[in-house]
Amino acid sequence: MIEDGRKSFVDIAADLDVTETAIRKRVKRMVKEGIIMRYSVEVNPRKLGFGVKAIIGIDTTPQRYLDVIQILKKNDKILRLFSSSGDHMIMMESWFVDDEMLHEFLKNLENIEGVIDICPAIINDMLK
Length: 128
Prior knowledge:
elongated
């Protein structure tokens, strides 16, 4: 369940008034069909020493779009990377210890051939 990934199949079955076996089979099927893509944990970045959490939008020249994506995929400072429509072609999430590390990261992005615009947004607090 989205709210509690550690909840047991027995507890989920009780909540939904079905058997534990039904839940186990349903989850197995959803994994097989790609509905459940992975299991993960959500951590508090500040508790890990990361004081700055940023969502960064990037625009590229059309000719270099795929090349830029390949470069960004290799960057271990990027936690999530998205192709998007709307205000920016590429969106990413990154965490930094402080503002200085963020600024250094942004300067490195500016040096990637084909990047024409970078728009960082600092996340102050997660509301939901």
